Amino acid sequence: MEVLERWVPKMMLRFPTQVFLVAICCLLYLPQLDSWPLFDWDELMPAESTREMLATGNYRMVQIDYQPFYEKPPLFMWIQALSMKLFGVNEFGARFPNVVTGTLVTLLLFNIGRLFFGSAMGVWWGLLMAVGVMSQFYFRSGFIHPVYDMFTCISVYYLYRLALPDEFSPRKWIRANRRKWLALSALFAGLATLVKGPACLVVIALTATVYFFLQRGRMRIEVSEMLAWWAVVLLVVFSWLGWELYDNGLRFVEGFGAFYRKLIATPAEGHGGPVYYYVVVLLIGCFPASVLFAAGLKKYETETDAQQQFKRWMLYLLLTNLLVFSLATTKIVHYASLCTYPLTFFAAYYLYRLWEGNDKWTWKQTLPVLVMAMIFAASVFGVHFLAERRSLLLPNIRDAFAAACLMAPVYLHPYEKWIGVIFLAAIMVAILLVQSRHVRWGIYLMLMATAVFFNTLLIIWVPRAERMSQHAYIDFILSKQTERCKIETDFRGYAVLFYTRKPPAQKDDYDCYYKIARLPRAGAVAAADTMLRELYRQNGYVFFERGRK
Fold this sequence. Notes:
mainly alpha, 6 strands, about 65% helix
């Protein structure tokens, strides 16, 4: 065992490590990428906007139903348009950009970790980011946030490089690199703004401000450099926004501002939650990094100044992102995804010190890892138990639509409930290996078990969640694709537009008109239009038909 422990790490670090990390990402993110429809809203909104860009050739304006849409800038849609050009207007084309993003993020973290700490640190950081359930879910989705998070993190990284003292290199070299780092930080901050809006600028500015004050003003970034940073950011943003302002005036700015004011002031579509909402989300979504990161906060005497400064920037990024979105009224899981970068960094740093023999595994790590593994195992067992007896939940569900969705037919394999037990057993063995001084094999097993466990759950349960939440609705739309018909909904959604491939100018000479409503709104919809005839009801959706208009 000891011979293998010495041989395997050397082989891993000599192997083209980045090829190994790319292979891991492909195994985790590519399987069954198009096996279920896109989810309304967060996947279908950008996908529909991208489809309309391709249909109209208008790449300047974000559109929904061929009308201006002021909630998002266009950069992610441009990236998605390139993917759909290659793979078609479908689920794979919509989700593939985030597979690439996840792979690039893993390589990025490996190279940053290797540069400032060592190759082993880079490997652990990349792997911890790759195996978490949030990462596996987002990097195989069509959501906007993965690209936004990556650009924001890169911008913060180059700010760190800019603030890092360098007293040994030639001044000419320092000046050239400072200009490069400033430009790159501002460039990626501008790109993040073009993906999702100026929230990233708030997070970046707050992170830098906290660093400035806690360093007692010793940030080593001059006022002229700060002004230049903002100038480059504005230049990048106005490369598109200026074009939009020239054609349409302030309509986008006013619409976007109104959307964000509403988002901050009131919970969007019921997405509220307590102040500690994101702490719970990250504890579950970033396992095992979430329960190991505290051990990485420790300061070691052997740390270089660059390493200590990097740890501070990561900590401030985590705290400012949590602060900004915890204070907002709207609570959505996506908003915490940027926190996965610093969380996985500190956990990887602890594993790196453990790997090098400079730290110890104690009950402070064993207890939370074991408790979380037991919670996951019990949750899988409990969810499977309740899924077989869903009728027991109905008396406690007041929402008629949610109750009907819950009763959608899904196939349950009797052995699935033991997946969590197998995961718990693997984690227990991994802990025993670490405690018995087989640290490296214990870490390997823990990460591998986590990757396989979460990947299996996603492949099994995401299609079921889709079947229970929206499958009846999308299946009806797909069944009408060959008809000359018009379909409308009584609720906000984008599936009708995307899956009917609605053309830019839809004619009124359709043969049939269909209306889709959700319980309990079906009665009001039927009363508002007496010409509607109910076709059937399925999983909380009510489908109506009206003849030729």
